[in-house]
Amino acid sequence: MDNMADRVNSSSRSGRKSGNEPSGDARRDRWRKHRIARRAEFVDAALRALDEHGPDMGMEHVAAAAGVTKPVLYRHFDDKADLYLALGHRGTEILFQRLLPAINAELAPVPRIRMALDAFFSVIEQYPNLYRLLARKSFADRPVDADVVAEDKQLIATALTALLGDYMRMLNMDSGAAEPWAHGIVGMVQSTGEWWLDKRTMSRDSVVEYLTQIIWAAIDGLTRQHGVALDPHSPLDADKVVPLKKATDHGQHEQTGEPS
After folding, report:
1. Coiled coil: which residue ranges (predicted)?
2. Whole-prediction pTM
3. For 75-93, what is the mean pLDDT?
4. Residues 112 and 94 both lie in one domain
């Protein structure tokens, strides 16, 4: 997307009206809220189906996990791509719920880096098949246009650019390096995460610690080149925060019939 804020703040990837906006018709509003709740239940069922069947799951597996028939699913999702996008919203929400408190924790630099990395790796460890499904950009052998993983990567890199830039200006350093540094860090973490999910040759704690050491060594090296020595175990004078909002999924069909 051209504007990543649109990605985060949109109430639905499919462009439908948010269920949080009353229509003025009480009956319609009740059905809309019901459909939002049912849609969320089906996304939960899809996560359970992913755990059982892996990223090759089909709509029939989701329907079975939800205890409904496929036609009932299609009353709440336009097609497979729509369910894929709803899963993407849920994955982004889960990631940001853990990542934002870690990034914005008022900690010393190294513990803050470690906590943020652990938040990311805890999500992909708990939801490996969700990450694999979103990363391969297809659902039930049907390619989809959206690239949820790439969008989240861009969103996080943009926020990290602002965070690093603030700190570099605070230390009287050229903040021009903030953007390539941010994209480099995010790309390294994502690539390492994919390798770790595939190989699992070490524990989560170990991979997080190794990445923490690499990232801190790069930061420490750059700041020392500019005559700034930071204590990795002491909080900085000013803790900057990332004003990043998480995506939510409120998509629903505009129907007013009996709930299903």
Report:
1. none
2. 0.80
3. 93
4. yes
Structural domain range at position 94: 87-240
Name every residue whose Cβ is closer than 8 Å to that of residue 206 and which is 6 or more positions away in sequence.
Answer: none
**Rounded Cα distance, 154 and 6, in Å:** 13
**Cα 145 from Cα 137, distance rounded (Å):** 7
pLDDT tens string 165-195: 999 999 999 999 999 999 999 999 999 999 9
Least Cα distance to 233 among 64, 108, 81, 130 occurs for 108
Say yes or no: 44 and 132 in one domain: no
Residue 114 lies in a domain: yes
Q: Could you tell me which residues come within 8 angstroms of residue 128 by beta carbon, excluding any fewer than 6 positions away?
A: 197
Contact (Cβ atoms closer than 8 angstroms) between residue 90 and residue 47: yes
> Residue 19 falls within a domain, yes or no?
no
The helix or strand, by DSSP H or E, that contains position 28, with its residue range, turns out to be helix 26-53
* CATH code at position 55: 1.10.10.60
Helices 148-170 and 80-103 meet at what angle, rounded to 10? 20
pLDDT at 8 over 60: no
